[in-house]
Amino acid sequence: MKKGLLGILVGFILLACGDGNVVVQVDPDIQRTKDSIAIAEYLYMKGFLDEEIGNTTNGVRYVILDSGSSVQAERIDESDHVDFNYIGKTLGDTIFDTSIQELGDSLKQHYEENPYITDTGDTVAVFTRLEYEPWFITYSASGWSIPTGQGGFIHGFAEGIAATFKYMGLEGKVLIVIPSGLAYGSSRAGVFIDPNTPIAFELYPIKLTKQ
Hints:
By secondary structure, the protein is α+β, with helices and mostly antiparallel strands. The protein has helices at 28-45, 101-113, 155-164; strands spanning 54-55, 61-66, 81-90, 95-98, 116-117, 123-124, 135-140, 143-145, 173-178, 199-209.
């Protein structure tokens, strides 16, 4: 993973026994059904209509919140280099990662003033990011190209980008919701993401370089 993106809050502590890794195995078919119901409920509670919600073949759901610029030179096309900001959150809307410094600094201050205390009574650092920067990719509707040194994506994140960026331009905004099997699966990730938990991202294209 790239420094920052999905590092899940630099300085987090995995909560569990032993080495801190928690793995909760469940039947994959049952989990997919549970995730689908949870994601549908989340989107409906947000007020989105069925016709506003897209769905990939693997169950990533998405909503184009703002299609952004209508100027052709600012629309995202195949092979374009795209820089974008992001906010990662649980389906309870707890933010666990962001590339936006103002938001990150606010979260850091919040947790410094209101430390997160685990159910075992331990205080943990949940947001200690020292620097922020957008993520960038070379966009492809059939896949994605990750620049050298950028690391990788969780599967659902990449699938959400491939499904949505073709509809967007600069200053657009998309919400993607990822089932647990395409996110962190049966493992705990950080303080806020339990095993077998769907997660959501808001993505904001902020810079476009035509190739």
